[in-house]
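This is your field. Have a critical look at the following sequence-structure pair:

***
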Amino acid sequence: MVTGIHTGTVRATATALAGPPVASVHASWEEIVEVGLRVTTGPLRVESLEHGPVDGLTPLSPAGPGWYRLRVHARGRNILPDKVSTEPVEDYLLVTWPATPSDADIIRSSDRIDQALAHASDMPEPQPPAPTRGAEQEALRRRLLRG
């Protein structure tokens, strides 16, 4: 997820659900995008590039490793684009639930998303999922990771 500001703090909330959200999307969100993602190890957490895991936010993979759907809601990304802000001007809501692999879906767009899509051919292709390991390979991998 890329913020609108270059440097500063944003407000973020994270919620993990057992299934897809049942409520309709609130009109106050300017951008809403859903993507499929695969959690391979450990809990999926919100992290800052500079400060690591964000304290106080719910892990987004409560069912453990596997496929999830991530819905990202954003507002305020166009208030101070590429500027520095000492006070939060952007809000984000991240919602996940277990799901089968699926393509990205833009629920609500903005000029920022439209511009990014116009340059999408410049972006690298997503990597395919890693091949499934057998029990013996997985045991060896775990031993090597433990040292």
